[in-house]
Amino acid sequence: EALAVLLKVQMNAFNCGLFVKLSMLNHACFPNCRVFGAGERAGGSTSLHTEVVATRALLAGDELTISFCGAGNSAARRALLFRRQHLIPLVSSFALPAAATLEAFAPGVDDSVLSKDALAQIEDELDCAESKDRLEFATGGVSTSHTAAAAAAATTTLKDLQAKGARAASLLHPRHVVLGRIHLLVARAARNVLATALDADVAEQLVRASIALRSCQALYLSETHWDLIEPKESLATGIDMLLSCDRKRLFAAFPIEYGCFSAASLAGAALRKEAADIRKLYCRPVEEELGSVASHQSPVVLEQFPVASSAAAPQQESSEDWSIFA
To answer: What is the DSSP string of 141-160?
Structure first.
């Protein structure tokens, strides 16, 4: 009995608690819903709730899915994480048309054990880099400090990620999902550097990383997906900074997209508007969004889930159905 209970908890737990309703959603490598943490969705529920929001229009009867394995992981890494959590193989019931491209190695690189081991090592290093990034954000580190030490740390992080990106680029297809993850981290690191000082080299790197990330995301994200907001805003930031400090460099580096001041400034404004429009879809008040999934053509709140709090709180009668643990 004790083992059965432990296994039920193991199979249905998330990293911040056990959610009976949320655990009813199945995994998909490319899901149609996104989980927002407590207080993460502006205009959403109170800080005591987690929310699930559709990332594209859904029809009545569509299964709601979320990702158990995070974004930006290779198929092999997703399978490994899923087996560790659920003790069974990961079987995908949805074949994405672009899946072959998202998982392809670079031309001339075979999918040998050595290549797969090299990819696994890169992903291990990225996990460490992301953990460090989350720690710095939580402690108000590089992204909010303007000291010389912060600038040096941000520059070191950026160079380290660029080195990982160069290794990955020699191994993987340009639109591989893991390269997309690296582009995302490079863009974040570049913005941290630019928060301490204006630098044309770093601004150009921000533009290039954001463009590459958007190219990868176009293979598997819907046009209104929440994850499109950050690269749009990063690209707009890079364009604006180059227009401020070295517009000739911007025009020369990107003659087709941003070859003159008018084209570049209009592109930056359009990107910011697109990001703002997507954010509005997710950040409207809850009472405006509740209703039939089939009647909405934009992301909607599907359910709210109480978050287990570490602080002592008054005991309230639970509306959850715990019969599955009987």
So the answer is: -TTT--SHHHHHHHHHHHHH
pLDDT in tens, 280-299: 888 755 444 444 333 333 44
Q: How far is CA 34 from CA 17, 91, 97, 279, 302, in A?
A: 17, 20, 21, 13, 10
Per DSSP, what are the bridge partners of residue 18?
Answer: 13
pTM of the model: 0.80
DSSP 308: P
27 Cβ contact partners less than 8 Å away, ≥ 6 residues apart: 65, 66, 67, 68, 69, 82, 90
Model confidence at 150, in pLDDT bands (50, 70, 90)?
Answer: confident
Q: Which tokens in the block code for residue 118?
A: 């090299």
How many CB atoms sit inside 10 A of residue 218's CB?
12
Q: Assess whether pLDDT exceeds 80 at residue 138.
A: no
- Give the torsion sign (CA, 140, 143, 149, 153): positive
H/E element, 252 = helix 247-253
306: β partners: 49
The pLDDT assigned to 186 comes to 96
Is the torsion defined by CA of 80, 85, 87, 88 positive or negative?
Answer: negative
